[in-house]
Specification:
- By secondary structure, the chain is of the alpha/beta class.
- Among the domains are: about 100 residues, 3-Layer(aba) Sandwich (Rossmann fold), CATH 3.40.50.2300; about 120 residues, Transcription Regulator spoIIAA (2-Layer Sandwich), CATH 3.30.750; about 40 residues.
- Helices cover about 35% and strands about 20% of the residues.
- The protein has 13 helices and 18 strands.
- The strands form 5 sheets. A 5-stranded parallel sheet has the order 2-1-3-4-5, sandwiched between helices. Strands 6-7-10-11 form a 4-stranded mixed sheet, with helices on both faces.
- Helix 12 links the parallel strand 13 and strand 14.
- The model has no long low-confidence stretch (mean pLDDT about 95).
- The structure holds iron/sulfur cluster (SF4).
- The site of iron/sulfur cluster (SF4) has 10 residues, from helix 6.
Length: about 400
């Protein structure tokens, strides 16, 4: 242990959180410790919306005010897209895009920067129960609204063998749940003879950690054999997160998504048929350019009639440089907000319905370590959040529990 100190601040998605936790672990292994008065600060940035970028900008300015002597390095998606701009910010001494963001560790400790591998795996272990394991990065789809593909580069991934080794490490640290993450998970193995289904089969066969969740998978890549495997597995949890983005075929085409609504619906019904208790979450965007009132109503009706558990609702954000930003028919902010609110309300109704369907059932719950007002929280296999009076012995254990209202 030396006397050097660091802090890491993370914005954005689970992938960023996984990478940040990994960086923190590597820095600790090099003898550095986390501190509120750090000498080096890593900011893992996000650029998913204009608002996300602004948050990063303001936060870095705040960090520099609070810690004028700290060396600040900004990494991540915003750093990939706007490196030159960020280099000019007060206090920022280095910028690493997604390709070489893990080199921030070497930069912080003053070691030579290594050549960057095309894929680096990371896993988080700051939570005592769950780990986010990154198995894939980048995307080749180029949806017209998205900057992620440009920020993270082409799809590339880990090997099955190395993913299994990482799961062994996570298991050895005593964590019970692995959340496998990536930008476009279903493209795992691109350019090799491995694929996502084979990876899931290998994880299922390895049968080491007690729970594995698939963080999100494109509908066109969610095959029936994957759904079937989840239906038969003890460790692949009955929980699907599938980005829909719009329930209007016209808008899906304008987004350059690779499926139509009928394919999406067929996947949802397949899940319901094979894994009836599954939690099914979707992503949806309100106010994509050119979305008329009629298109929105089509989209709304489409999701309304599907047996979904809840929805992640995003208001369309115009990202410079994307094809969608150049579309003339941008939807006014007030209309976007109205549509967002209607979708949020629908999501709440669906969530209540999903929870109610399972009230009274006894389901396995993984209990988390956090305590709030004398209570602890946990999630069932099918991702229903439950609570109980805090009991230290229950933390990081999976116990049968009767699902009740929170
Ligand atoms: S599939 Fe996802 S990450 Fe890839 S371009 Fe589309 S929205 Fe972006």
């Amino acid at each position: 242990m030396n006397n050097h100190t660091f802090a890491i601040h993370t914005f954005g998605c689970k992938l960023n959180f996984s990478e940040s936790s990994d960086m923190a672990r590597r820095l600790r292994e090099l003898g550095w410790s986390e501190s509120e008065q750090p000498e080096a600060i890593v900011v893992n940035s996000c650029a998913v919306t204009h608002a996300a970028e602004k948050k990063v900008r303001n936060y870095v300015a705040h960090l520099h005010r609070e810690h004028p002597d700290a060396r600040i390095v900004v990494v991540g998606c915003y750093a990939s897209l706007c490196a030159e701009e960020i280099r000019k910010w007060a206090g920022v001494e280095a910028v690493f895009g997604n390709r070489d963001k893990m080199n921030a560790v070497q930069w912080v400790v003053g070691q030579p920067i290594p050549e960057t591998p095309t894929f680096f795996s990371t896993y988080s272990s700051n939570d005592r129960t769950r780990s986010f394991l990154k198995i894939q990065d980048g995307c080749d789809y180029y949806c017209t609204y998205c900057t992620v593909a440009a920020a993270r580069g082409e799809s590339r991934s880990d090997s099955i063998e190395h993913v299994l080794q990482n799961i062994e490490k996570i298991h050895a640290e005593g964590l019970k749940e692995v959340n496998i993450t990536g930008v476009n998970l279903g493209t795992f193995g691109k350019g090799t003879d491995e694929n996502f289904y084979d990876l899931l089969k290998a994880i299922d066969r390895q049968h080491l950690v007690e729970r594995v969740r698939i963080s999100s998978i494109e509908p066109n890549l969610l095959t029936d054999e994957i759904i079937h495997l989840v239906s038969e597995s003890d460790i692949l949890m009955p929980h699907f997160h599938i980005p829909l983005q719009s329930g209007s075929d016209k808008i899906l085409a304008a987004m350059k998504r690779r499926y139509k609504t009928d394919l999406f619906a067929s996947k949802i019904y397949k899940i319901k048929q094979l894994v009836p208790d599954a939690c099914i979450a979707i992503d949806i965007i309100a106010g994509f350019p050119g979305e008329t009132d009629a298109d929105f109503e089509d989209s709304f009706e489409f999701v309304k009639q599907l047996p979904l558990s809840y929805m992640h609702v995003f208001t369309y954000s115009r990202r410079p440089g994307t094809p969608a930003a150049a579309i003339k028919e941008q939807v006014p902010e007030t209309v976007k907000r109205e549509r967002t609110n209607r979708l949020l309300e629908l999501s709440e109704t669906k969530k209540r319905f999903f929870y109610h369907e399972h009230f009274g059932e006894t389901r396995p719950v993984l209990w988390e370590s956090e305590e709030a007002d004398g209570k602890m929280f946990g999630f069932t296999d099918n991702y229903i959040k439950v609570s109980a009076p805090f009991c230290a012995d229950w933390v990081n254990t999976i116990r049968p529990y009767v699902v009740e209202d929170l």
